[in-house]
Design goal:
heterodimer, A: about 325 residues, Rossmann fold, B: about 400 residues, alpha/beta, 2 domains, 7-stranded mixed β-sheet, 3-stranded antiparallel β-sheet
Chain lengths: ~325, ~400
């Protein structure tokens, strides 16, 4: 017993000693994380959370830590810099939090020595891209039951998961029609329409303001997510909220497709609670200088407007989200 | 096992011809049948659990296909599968603990030759990993995953120790089967006792001089109301008659026989009467995973009326009615169209109806659905044998009762 505590003391002292003198190389490290993150983000099929986790894995690999505690401190710093770099990105924050939580929960005790624990964490982090891809496949599979022949689906913006769902449905020879909103200001809906047209899915493009006009021909609404928050609500591209309200008032189901790593520990009370992600908007004509422009890129949809969430954890009601988050972070 | 095969066939036929009515009776019969299937099933030495699971699944598929609308059958099959998995796991954990001790003593003798095929992980870790396979996937396990090394000893746990001690083997085999049958017996008791469990809570929900509305005939509701009456609550019951089968009439008769103040109203009078009602209590045919309810036809109308007047809409359901599936298109897919003779007399309308003999389509059509779907936002409270629950809490109960692997059969 005594031996162990002496050992522990020594390590703790070593850790304390190490930090002050390491201050100078540490200052260059935040740069490295962000660069790594941006490198990963270049890949077209990679979600932001995956890039974040891969960047954090790179931190682990470069780390000279010899105890789990040291590693955690280093990772915490790196994840804080990552999060501070883009405070508006929910999936970045959620990805960092999820990974940090995982590292904290993987105690070296379970694996008897530090190195095997470290390798395990690294291995899982590197597999995370795969996990994310698999999640998309699972979600696509789960949602197939809900797409019946002859249905009309309204989608908003470009979401990789929603695209995967529609692609799988088309491959399963389901007969359905898709209405794509334009997705101003960056025309993401047009992008989705282009991809779907390649699959020979019957399509109709509409301007964002035509949603209510077209809602009577719609059977269900599919949207992706930037993040799913603790209330079970949804943070997604601007316009999702109004589509959900219109769909709700006309009794059409609104389905959200989101990988579970997008569950974020946030509890927005209204639209303005979240820090807005601003984006330049081109109106085509010059805007008089004194006129204010709303440039927020996303909005918050409260849970009562959502019907079901399709996630890799299964088909869930919005209230399950808080449960999952509480389980993970308690 | 020809006798089991024939009883299965007999039950399948009964289900197909809709000879068994009511989800409780069906659930109980299913559980009893599965119990005899398990007791007759010969199990191999290795992987007995999977042999049992396969046997139960094979029978279960036949039963579900025989009457896909009666969700209680599938629920009971899934419950039994869950029992097998759980019992196997608890045995495996116990065996692992024993093995771990053996392993440790071996270690001392032959130094560091630990390679018996087991990872250097403790039995606790393995058990935890195996346990997580029973649970539905969660955010917690997203990154952790099941360690591959843990999966191997788990599946071969019963096979591995058979090599060393064959004598113990048969006792373990018998133990698993015995435990499973014990578990199924427990389930059967639970199914037959659910009325009492639910009725016990009646006093908390029904108050003096209240007016209760119910629709259709449900034994659970009857027991519930009578339990409140027995506790000296005096209240009045409105019974909607439940056309076209008029099961409400039977319920009213029973209620009167037990001394309750009863009023029979037509189904179409529900909206007119709802403003005088303090609470609507109905029995469910099935409860879906999102908290939606499948009930006797007309129930959705009652639920909408209750919503309009802010009257609590309470659903009574035994836990065997909890279905782990999400409804899509429930009005059509989970419904059953019954004979037109319940609506119209054959003699009077035989001229208008075309019984497939004449040419062209008949001018008169009869649609007689037996169920209604009530969306979760219209339900105020579920009362199950484990207590009162919110519709949004149903998924939690389902996670307790069923294994994630069995959801799709």
């Amino acid at each position: 017993m005594w031996i162990r505590s002496a050992d522990w003391l020594e390590q703790a002292q070593a850790a304390v000693r190490r930090y002050p003198e390491k201050d100078s190389p540490v200052s260059s490290r935040p740069f490295a994380v962000i660069e790594e993150f941006n490198n990963w983000r270049q890949q077209p099929d990679l979600a932001e959370a995956v890039a974040a986790i891969r960047a954090l894995a790179a931190v682990i690999r470069a780390s000279e830590a010899t105890t789990m505690m040291e590693l955690e401190i280093e990772l915490k710093k790196a994840s804080d810099t990552l999060k501070a770099w883009d405070t508006t990105s929910i999936s970045l924050t959620a990805g960092c939090d999820l990974f940090m939580r995982y590292v904290t929960r993987t105690s070296a005790l379970e694996f008897e020595d530090f190195n095997s624990a470290k390798f395990r964490v690294l291995g899982r982090a590197e597999k995370f891209g795969e996990i994310s891809n698999k999640a998309r496949k699972i979600i696509a599979m789960l949602s197939q039951d809900f797409i019946f022949d002859g249905c009309t689906i309204l989608v908003h913006g470009f979401s990789r998961v929603v695209f995967e769902i529609l692609k799988t449905a088309a491959q399963n020879k389901k007969l359905f029609r898709v209405l794509c909103t334009e997705g101003r200001p960056d025309k993401t809906g047009v992008l989705l329409a282009k991809e779907l047209a390649k699959l020979d899915v019957p399509l109709k493009l509409l301007i964002d303001s035509a949603v209510a006009y077209c809602m009577d021909e719609v059977d269900m609404v599919f949207v992706g997510a930037d993040g799913v928050v603790e209330s079970g609500g949804l943070v997604n591209m601007m316009g999702t909220y109004q589509i959900a309200i219109v769909a709700h008032s006309m009794n059409k189901p609104v389905y959200v497709a989101a990988e579970s790593y997008k569950f974020a520990r946030l509890y927005p009370l209204d639209q303005k609670t979240l820090e807005p992600a601003l984006r330049p908007i081109d109106f085509g004509v010059s805007v008089p200088p004194k006129v204010e422009v709303e440039r927020s890129a996303r909005d918050y949809t409260p849970p009562q407007f959502l019907t079901l969430l399709f996630t890799d954890l299964g088909v869930l009601t919005p209230s399950v989200v808080s449960d999952e988050l509480i389980q993970l972070y308690s | 096992m020809p006798d089991v095969q024939s009883t299965v066939l007999e039950f399948v036929n009964k289900l197909r011809k809709r000879k068994i009515e009511g989800s409780q009776a069906t659930a109980k019969c299913t559980a009893e049948l599965l119990r005899s299937v398990i007791s007759q099933q010969r199990v191999p030495h290795a992987n007995q659990a999977s042999a049992l699971i396969d046997a139960v699944k094979a029978v279960g598929e036949q039963l579900v296909a025989a009457n896909p609308v009666e969700l209680a059958v599938g629920n009971v099959v899934r419950r039994v599968l869950h029992i097998i998995r759980e019992e196997d796991l608890s045995l495996a954990t116990a065996a692992m603990a024993g093995l771990d001790l053996l392993d440790a003593s071996d270690d001392e003798e032959d130094g560091n030759s630990k390679g018996v095929g087991y990872s250097p992980m403790s039995a606790a870790v393995v058990a935890a990993a195996a346990r997580s396979t029973l649970r539905p996937p969660s955010l917690q396990t997203l990154l952790e995953g099941t360690p591959e090394s843990a999966a191997v000893p788990y599946t071969s746990s019963s096979g591995a120790d058979s090599e060393s001690k064959t004598a113990d083997k048969s006792s373990i085999t018998r133990k698993l089967k015995h435990d499973v049958i014990e578990g199924v017996n427990h389930l059967i008791l639970e199914i037959s006792g659910c009325h009492d469990q639910i009725a016990e809570q009646a006093i908390e929900h029904i108050h003096q001089n209240e007016v209760i509305l119910t629709l259709g005939s449900s034994r659970t509701v009857l027991e519930f109301l009578c339990a409140a009456k027995e506790k000296k609550r005096s209240f009045r019951v409105f019974v909607a008659e439940g056309a076209p089968r008029y099961q409400g009439h039977l319920l009213a008769k029973e209620l009167v026989a037990r001394g309750l103040q009863t009023t029979v109203i037509t189904d179409s009078a529900v909206f007119a009467m709802i403003s005088r009602v303090n609470m609507v209590i109905i029995g469910a045919h099935a409860v879906m995973a999102n908290g939606g309810v499948i009930g006797p036809v007309g129930v959705n109308m009652a639920a909408l009326a209750a919503k309009k007047h802010a009257v609590p809409f309470v659903v009574l359901a035994g836990s065997h009615k909890l279905c782990p599936l999400y409804p899509h298109n429930p009005e059509v897919l989970l419904n059953e169209l019954r004979s037109p003779s319940e609506l119209l007399d054959f003699g009077e309308f035989s001229d208008c109806l075309d019984f497939g003999t004449g040419s062209g389509s008949p001018l008169l059509q009869v649609v007689n659905p037996s169920f209604d779907y009530v969306p979760p936002n219209l339900v105020s409270l579920f009362i199950t044998d484990t207590g009162g629950h919110n519709p949004s809490y149903m998924y939690r109960l389902i996670a307790d009762y069923y294994s994630a692997d069995d959801l799709v059969m």
